[in-house]
Amino acid sequence: MANHNNISGAQSADADAHTTLKRAISLPLLVFYGLGVTIGAGIYVLVGATAAQAGIYAPVSFLLAAVVMLFSAGSFSELSGRYPQSAGEAAYVEAGFNLPSLTLVTGALMILAAIVSASAIAVGCAGYVATLVPLPLWSTITIIIVFAGLLAVWGILESVSVAAVLTVVEVLGLVVVVVAGMWQYPDIIRELPSVFPAFTDTPAFVAIGMTSLLAFFAFIGFDGMVNIIEETENPARNMPLGIFITLGIATLLYFLVTAVAVLTLPLDELGRSTAPISLLFERLTGISPLVITLIAIGATFNGVIIQTILASRVIYGMADVGRLPKVLAMLNLQTRTPLLATALVVGCTLVFALFLPINILAERTSQIVLAVFVLINLSLLRIKWRRDPAPVGIFTVPKIVPVIGFLTCVIMLIGPLIFLN
Q1: HSE of 87 in the Cβ direction (CA atoms, 13 Å)?
Q2: What single-letter DSSP state applies at residue 187?
Q3: Integer CA distances (angstroms), 271 to 55, 123, 217, 285, in order
Q4: Cβ(308)–Cβ(37) under 8 Å?
Q5: What is the rounded CA–CA span in Å between residue 312 and residue 344?
Q6: How many CA atoms lie within 13 A of 219 on its CB side?
Q7: Is the dihedral of CA 130, 134, 138, 144 positive or negative?
Q8: pTM of this prediction?
Q9: How crowded is residue 274: how many other Cβ atoms within 10 Å of its Cβ?
Q10: Taking a C-beta distance cutoff of 8 angstroms, is the pair 43, 277 a contact?
Q11: What count of Cα atoms within 13 Å lies in the side-chain half-sphere of residue 362?
Q12: What is the CA radius of gyration of the chain?
């Protein structure tokens, strides 16, 4: 028996070979996980940026991004049932193309996307903390990322439970903003149609299309849910449900919050604000922005925790099937979490967060994830063309879903480049 005071001993090769991830995540916890990784830095930071680009039509950019996500969500839901593995995206691409090099590239892209996203969120979190605690920004970023890493290795049930509590707080913050807006401006519901442009307003649709890439960042998260499938109870049922419930709740909140913002605040002031939700909260409620600042800290810190978990699980899953060094698949016997994989994620997140600006981090995250979504939709399409049988009882979609998912992701990926040039 290994000495419990010796971590490396607790992770011996023989013991690790019989240690598996713990199935402890119910459907509610799965939804909280999905909302936690989806809602947060995106909406708390991007409302002003989307308003600056699309003006009063900013809410529609979130709806467009949600449509792109919807078809890809269908593909993810079926693939998660066909191949219920932690390194989900890599497993799906391998099943579709059977090209080890492409599998490795896909997994690496997802790890990179999660790490870059965690870095962006950590920088945003540190910015909020800096308004309350006068520490050097680099030290605040370091504390946030290391603490998130410690929570991630504490145990999947414990870390997701902490994330669930923080998710409730951040969602309530957005709900309060929406309710306050409707309370202060009772006519706002009748004004909602004004956020939709006329069909002949081509410049408005171009602005919405350009802004949708920015809005897309706010939806990144549901794809990461498939990477905790080995820790999810009844995954064939709960994973598709969790994905679509998460996407539906996030879309509703994003549209309503953005609509309230553009209909109640001057667009130029909203576009210039670096803390748009705080500004909106203060104007609508008259309460000190300290409250929403604390909520924003919780929301962004929550995002760092969950992205850390996501990246470490992709590394674990790829190492477990031999695509990365086996040492990265070792689990601690007590926590049953991948300590070395998580430490690697924390180290890389620190490097990105300390040396790259947040806007570059967010933009690169969206582009990386869109590229992976293109591969995922193509993989399901190839699987369906080959008529590979689906396991009995899993969620499935018609062929048109991955086709539309592929096309919408390609358009969103290359569209802004075309218009910019």
Answers
A1: 29
A2: T
A3: 8, 20, 17, 20
A4: no
A5: 8
A6: 31
A7: negative
A8: 0.78
A9: 11
A10: yes
A11: 22
A12: 21
pLDDT tens figures, 161-190 = 776 777 788 788 889 889 999 988 888 888
pLDDT at 63 over 90: yes
Specify the amino acid at residue 177.
V
Element (H, E) at 412: helix 400-420
pLDDT digit string (tens) for 192-219?
999 999 888 888 888 888 888 778 878 8
Residues 135, 147: Cα–Cα separation, whole Å = 16
CA 25, CA 283: separation in Å to the nearest integer? 39
- Band of pLDDT at residue 107, cut at 50, 70 and 90: confident
Question: For residues 9 and 289, what is the distance between their CA atoms, to the nearest angstrom?
Answer: 49
Q: What is the spatial distance between Cα 311 and Cα 107, in angstroms, rounded to a whole number? A: 10
CA distance 310 to 221: 9
Nearest CA-CA partner of 253 in 39, 78, 86: 39
With contact defined as beta carbons under 8 Å apart, do 254 and 43 qualify? yes
159 Cβ contact list (under 8 Å, min separation 6): 151, 152, 153, 305, 309
C-alpha distance from residue 20 to each of 16, 30, 158, 203, 287 (Å): 8, 19, 17, 54, 48
Q: Which two tokens stand for residue 368?
A: 């990386």
In order of start, what are the domains of the chain with their CATH numbers? 32-420 (1.20.1740.10)
Tell me the residue length of the chain: 421
Taking CA atoms, 348 is separated from 119, 254, 308, 343, in Å, by 9, 30, 10, 9
Contact (Cβ atoms closer than 8 angstroms) between residue 253 and residue 43: yes
